[in-house]
């Protein structure tokens, strides 16, 4: 099984092109788990299965989490997939579109090929869209009890669900401790991505991320988008925001109706072939 590995600020994905596997469908849950495993497989934060034909866009992409579940959208995954298309001369510097389960996005590669800009779509704060249980409402500054703490959270979707908690101080330990229980809380019927957010100033925020289906993550494009949008909705930042994460920085522009334009880098890591023996391991 041929693969291509990239990372976007330490958030790494494996690209698998369906064209290299004629007659084969997407990898199974068991295959995804072993491929993504850091000890028994290649190791990654997910698998990008594409490109595939699309009636709505230039390309279609499916995104799989390390636990085998399918993600609707991933900002870093989309940037990585775009870089793969560029590296393989499937796209150039003209804008193009990618269809995901979370909607169609527009992509632009920078003139030097080093930065990729994605129009991620509009952030929505409505409980029925995210989704969040209860009456239909804008999910802003609500209370939730996790383990030994009460938190105030906001929720949003940009094609995938997010729970954002604004705090004066944040840390990796905080995300690792409370992230798993927030991800699977009954408030979120499709589970949720979790971000702990600290406002640095009107143009900068810092986040720690617990990613649905993947766990603690060094960087996330959709998390950056949702966090910046919520910070702006709460009046804490302006429309141009730099999001600081353990893996690096992503630039977010917030347009009308909370339309998000995200810009960040991608690094090519490796390409190779997975041996069939890999799949004799159960994880």
Q: Which term fits the overall shape?
A: globular
- Proportion of helical residues: 10-25%
The CATH homology group name of the largest domain: Diaminopimelate Epimerase, Chain A, domain 1
Number of helices: 4
Order of helices and strands: EEHEEEHEEEEEEHEEEHEEEE
| Radius of gyration (Å) | 18 Å
Helix-and-strand structural type: alpha+beta
Poorly predicted runs of 5 or more residues? none
- Beta-strand content estimate: 35-45%
Distance between the termini: 19 Å
CATH first level of the largest domain: which class?
A: Alpha Beta
Mean pLDDT: 96
The main sheet comes to: 18 strands, mixed
CATH topology of the largest domain: Diaminopimelate Epimerase, Chain A, domain 1
Question: How many strand elements?
Answer: 18
Reported CATH architecture of the largest domain = Roll
In short:
This protein has 283 residues and is of the alpha+beta class.
Detailed description of the structure:
It is a single chain. With 283 residues, the protein is of the alpha+beta class. The chain has 2 domains: 2-119 and 266-280, Roll (Diaminopimelate Epimerase, Chain A, domain 1), CATH 3.10.310.10; 142-262, Diaminopimelate Epimerase, Chain A, domain 1, CATH 3.10.310.10. Helix content is 16%, strand content 40%. It has helices spanning 29-36, 75-87, 172-183, 221-233; strands at 2-8, 11-16, 47-52, 59-64, 70-71, 96-100, 103-109, 115-122, 142-146, 149-157, 161-166, 193-201, 204-211, 215-217, 240-245, 248-254, 259-265, 267-273. It has an 18-stranded mixed sheet that branches. Strand 1 and strand 2 form a beta hairpin. The radius of gyration is 18 Å and the shape is globular.
